[in-house]
Every structure is written in C-alpha cells, then in structure tokens.
Design goal:
Elements lengths: L4 E6 L3 H10 L6 E7 L3 H11 L4 E2 L2 H5 L6 E4 L6 H10 L3 E4 L7 H13 L4 E3 L7 H11 L6 E11 L13 H4 L3 H4 L2 H11 L2 E9 L10 E8 L4 E7 L1 E13 L2 E4 L13 E4 L2 H10 L10 H14 L7 H20 L3 E2 L16
Parallel strand pairs: 1-2, 1-4, 2-3, 4-5, 5-6, 7-10
Antiparallel strand pairs: 7-11, 8-9, 8-14, 9-10, 11-12, 12-13
Helix pairs in contact: 1-11, 4-5, 5-12, 6-9
The chain binds nicotinamide-adenine-dinucleotide.
C-alpha cells in the first residue's frame, strides 16, 4: 500500500522549488494539498500553476486542516521558530528551511519540543545530495581517505542591490545574519557532514559589497575535532560564482564540483594517492546507484524516515551545529579571539548572536 503524505507549503519563494524538485518527482510519496502565502498574487499564481486548489493567507487555517500530514515552512527566517512550534504542537510533521531558528537558545528549545512531539522535524540542507558528495561521504565513512589534513571551503557568490530590495533581506531582525546565515551555511554544513565536528574557530566578518546591516564577507580558520585544519572564505561580491569544498586526506584529495547552487553533483575530483587506493575506491563505488541532487533526494529520504520511523536524513542537531558555527563566527569576530566548541548557554551569544 502506498503511504502518501499530504503536504502544505508555507511561503512560495523557495517553496516553489520544494514543489518542483522535492515533491512533484515523488507522486507515490507526496500529495501537494494546500498552499499558504501572505502574498495573494503569488498564492494564486502558484496555486494555478500546479493546480492546487486549497489556498490561504492564514497559517492558522493550515494548522486546522486535519488531513495535512506535513507542514513545509519556507517563510523568511525570523518567524521559523513560531511556525515550527505551532506546527509541532498541532501534531504535524515539519520541514523547515535554513536557518532553522534565530539563536542557539531557540534551537535547543526546538530540540526539546521535538522530543515530546507526535510529528517529526526535518531541517533543509539539500546541498548534501548528489552523486559527488555522496561518493565522498562513502569513501570517508569507509575509512579509505585516511588521516584528514586540511580543507578549504569557498562560497563566492554575487548579490546586488536588487536582491536586497526584498524588505526582509539584509537586516538583523529579519534575515538574522548575512552571508554566513543565508548563503555559505550550506557549504559549512557539507564541511562538517564530511569532516566531522569543529573544535575551535577564529573568524572575521565584514560588510563590504552591499549597503546592508549584516555581513557579506567572512573568513575563518578552524580546527576540526579530528585534528584537520580548515579555512572558510565567503563573499557576496564574486563576479564569477563558485561553491568549492576541497579536502586533503592522507590517501585522497577530494574536491567538489564548483556549481554554486549544486556543488554536490558529479563530477567531483577524487585523486587517490596510489593505484592500490584507487582500486579500493573503485571497488567501494562499484554498482553506484545515482543520487538525484538537492530536494529530490532529501524529500525522498524524509518520506522513508516517516514510514519506517527510521533516522531523518537531516536533523535538528545538524541544524544546531550549523548555527553553532555561525554563533562562534560572530563571537570570534567581535572579541577577536578563538572560540572553543561546543557553544552553549555560557556563551554571551547563546540567546542572540546579533552585534552588541
Ligand atoms: N535552501 C535553499 O537553497 C534556500 C534558497 C533560498 C531561500 N532559502 C530560505 O528560505 C526562506 C525563504 O526565502 P525566500 O528566498 O523564498 O524568500 P521570499 O521572500 O522569496 O519568499 C518568502 C515568502 O513567504 C511569504 N510569507 C512571509 N511570511 C509569511 C507568513 N507568516 N505566512 C505565510 N507566508 C509568509 C512571503 O509572502 C513570501 O512570498 C528563508 O529562510 C531563506 O533563507 C533557502
């Protein structure tokens, strides 16, 4: 028997991509049942485009729709916490865009709420999916890569004043942060997904490209728990856009695709140190089953986790780790000192990372 979950999408900017890439490819798993957006024009246009008849401008209406299984939150970030809390309290499963919430304190509250909730909560980190990143993950997890030495993580994108014409963007109160929060958060999640947790960070942030409150350039030096050293460089002023993750291990060099918005896809550069390691990698990856990029795989794995009650592909602990990195970054930049992980309630930035 198919177990089709009924989905309501809240917010139809990136929410439209969730529909196209994440749900429509899986008609045997999901039914798009309702749409919600404050912008009626957008609501009508996207409702008509996909033939979704149930449309509302009120989130409370969605909460009261008994047949909806999954509420997918794609609104601006400053209201994620409130909407997640309400959706979990209503017993719904929840998908939520990055950044999950606006502080580590709020992330910890959500993790607590989740423990007693009937529904499950999956944060979005779709850059984890694609053949390149998944092959790298398999090689590293199998122990074939050997000792990790160093990594670089570049998010060099471009954003112009037109992008910031959308009122919520560029402001602490509504975007919650800048390039670290909105753009490079994806590649930083990929770094820790592949290289494991961070031990300490020294970072700097600066606003140099656009006339905005939040940072649009950032750099950092990281010590990973496994002893490797990593550097982060992020800017929204790069005329040519790339996302690039490059990792040097004892046995292999691994470098991502440079596609800015889907660096997880093939081809990745995987250069073994010897023919023997090359043969082991080939054997490990023999019979590879393609992993579609981005939301297509993340949503499929979400459905699998729901029906099997198995582990979620991306968890609130992962989302917290991404926010922990950002919190440490802001703290380090402000205090001009190294920040040690984990970052918890003792941190001055635990309840809010906004500048003093
Ligand atoms: N994963 C990714 O690659 C990715 C890409 C872009 C944006 N995002 C994230 O998605 C979120 C939305 O970003 P966006 O670029 O789509 O923004 P957007 O401004 O284009 O769209 C947000 C939509 O939410 C609607 N909205 C606002 N408040 C609402 C409410 N209370 N109820 C219902 N609808 C409401 C707005 O009317 C708007 O149509 C942000 O958190 C952003 O960081 C993620």
């Amino acid at each position: 028997m198919p177990d089709i979950k009924k989905v309501a999408i809240i917010g139809l900017g990136i929410g439209r991509s969730h529909i196209v890439e994440g749900y429509l490819p899986h008609p045997d798993r999901f039914e798009l049942a309702a749409l919600c957006d404050l912008n009626e024009e957008r609501l009508e246009a996207i409702g008509s485009e996909f033939g979704i008849e149930r449309r509302t401008t009120r989130f409370a209406d969605v909460i009261n729709m008994d047949d909806i299984d999954i509420i997918d939150i794609c609104t601006p970030p400053s209201i994620h916490f409130e909407l997640i809390s309400q959706a979990l309290a209503a017993g719904k499963h929840v998908v939520c865009e990055k950044p999950l919430v606006g502080s580590l304190a709020d992330a910890d509250t959500i993790i607590e709420l989740e423990k007693s909730a009937r529904g499950r909560l999956m944060p979005i980190f779709q850059y984890r999916y694609g053949d390149g990143v998944q092959k790298a993950k398999r090689i590293i997890d199998a122990g074939l890569a050997g000792k990790p030495y160093a990594a670089t993580c570049e998010t060099h994108w471009i954003r112009t004043p037109e992008y910031y014409a959308v009122p919520w963007r560029g402001k602490w109160a509504t975007e919650l942060g800048g390039v670290l929060m909105t753009q490079s958060i994806h590649l930083h999640d990929m770094l820790t997904y592949l290289m494991g947790p961070i031990e300490a960070l020294f970072g700097r942030v600066s606003t140099r490209v656009n006339d905005i409150e939040v940072e649009d350039c950032a750099s950092a030096s990281l010590l990973m728990q496994n002893g490797a050293l990593a550097t982060i460089s992020a800017t929204l002023g790069s005329v040519e856009q790339i996302s690039r993750l490059r990792m040097c291990f004892e046995n292999v060099l691994i470098e991502s695709n440079h596609e800015p918005y889907s660096p997880g896809q093939d081809p990745w550069k995987i250069v073994p140190v010897s023919e023997e390691i090359g043969r082991k990698i080939d054997a490990l990856l023999a019979g590879w089953q393609p992993v579609p990029i981005r939301f297509e795989t993340q949503m499929r794995l979400f459905h699998e986790a729901l029906v099997s009650a198995g582990p979620l592909p991306v968890t609130t602990v992962d989302a917290r780790a991404a926010l922990e990195l950002v919190t440490a970054f802001y703290e380090s930049s402000e205090t001009r000192s190294e920040v040690k992980f984990p970052v918890g309630p003792e941190s001055a930035k635990y309840k809010s990372w906004r500048p003093v």
